């Protein structure tokens, strides 16, 4: 009805409401959560209108009793490759028998194997394959999910992946953020390829609004530092945000470049040392750590603890993909970041909410304070720390997106 007041609902029966402050948090501020016992949450339309103790709550026409649950902001997954075809089960077995991830890639397997399978799939097939993966991430607590392209063998393949994300955005509840990923260059004609990406692919993606950011895999087996600079420069010239996969195996300067260029985030960082930590601590760029990769590839984990102690803003993501992180739960990524990256539970919640939002350039979500999107979780138990504690089962009872329970 035009002009109608947005619906107002008061959520009660909240044993504990826990939230970081709005906006990205760095260093020691990542540990500062607000914890309100016996709380209530007022939602107007799709926004938080008020939070506080139940006894102080304003009246509302509708109330909804959450039965003694702990409530936190919905989680945000700032890094996935959720669209792919085929599988990497043979790679997995080969790695278990001693072949490295990089060796598989160098011999034309790995990412290139997934690219060949993905190239053979239509937009509809790609979205049908991705949908249950996104639903698993959402059940685990994700209200907002980033999805990268990067398995196209050519530009048409990349565009099909981004069109699959656009189709998925119409089919699933919650927010999907598409990113154009320049993953691995062709084995021949690299110079021309980089030029074509800058002059044709990036402008088309920007024009058709198929992605909001451009990401590059900056690594010995992927794009060089100077190729990365050219690609990110073209992205910025076309109004797209930039981010980077860097320091996964080797530090070749990607992190320093991303900080210098004002990237939203640098992701991976397993091999980062003091220079990279200093660069991130001195910039507004988020340091996104991906504990699923450390677990699955047996890599040393990114230095989450050292990054926070140095004053950086850390985010956490699943990196859901078939080759390096078959992790279908953002809550498990949060829980693993405590075990593997040395985050405290409070830092991990901040990393998976307001900091993950900032890694996507979003500032209207991640905290349960007035004005933010009413994306929140009701847990099974009364203590929010179950989110960081539980492995192998879900502590998430229900996910609310814009104030509505996800079916
Ligand atoms: O974030 N390292 C590069 N890209 C992905 C892995 C993709 C794959 O192995 O299929 C990552 O780890
Ligand atoms: Fe990735």
UniProtKB/TrEMBL annotation:
Gene3D superfamilies: Metal-dependent hydrolases, Urease, subunit C, domain 1
E.C. no: 3.5.2.7
Alphabetic keyword roster: Cytoplasm, Histidine metabolism, Hydrolase, Iron, Metal-binding, Plasmid, Zinc
Binding positions for Fe(3+) per the UniProt entry: 79, 81, 245, 319
HAMAP family registered for this protein in UniProt: HutI
Gene behind the chain: hutI
EC class name: hydrolase
Pathway: Amino-acid degradation; L-histidine degradation into L-glutamate; N-formimidoyl-L-glutamate from L-histidine: step 3/3
Full protein name: Imidazolonepropionase
Family that this chain belongs to: Belongs to the metallo-dependent hydrolases superfamily. HutI family.
Residues that coordinate or bind 4-imidazolone-5-propanoate: 88, 151, 183, 248, 324
Taxonomic classification: Bacteria, Thermotogati, Deinococcota, Deinococci, Deinococcales
Reactions performed catalytically: 4-imidazolone-5-propanoate + H2O = N-formimidoyl-L-glutamate
Biological source species: Deinococcus sonorensis KR-87
Role played: Catalyzes the hydrolytic cleavage of the carbon-nitrogen bond in imidazolone-5-propanoate to yield N-formimidoyl-L-glutamate. It is the third step in the universal histidine degradation pathway.
Pfam family, one: Amidohydro_1
Entry binding sites for Zn(2+): 79, 81, 245, 319
Subcellular location: Cytoplasm
Main location, first listed in the record: cytoplasm
GO annotation (BP), single: L-histidine catabolic process to glutamate and formamide
Molecular function per GO: imidazolonepropionase activity; iron ion binding; zinc ion binding
Superkingdom as given in the UniProt entry: Bacteria
GO cellular component, one term: cytoplasm
Record text on cofactor binding: Binds 1 zinc or iron ion per subunit.
Ranges for domain Amidohydrolase-related: 71-403
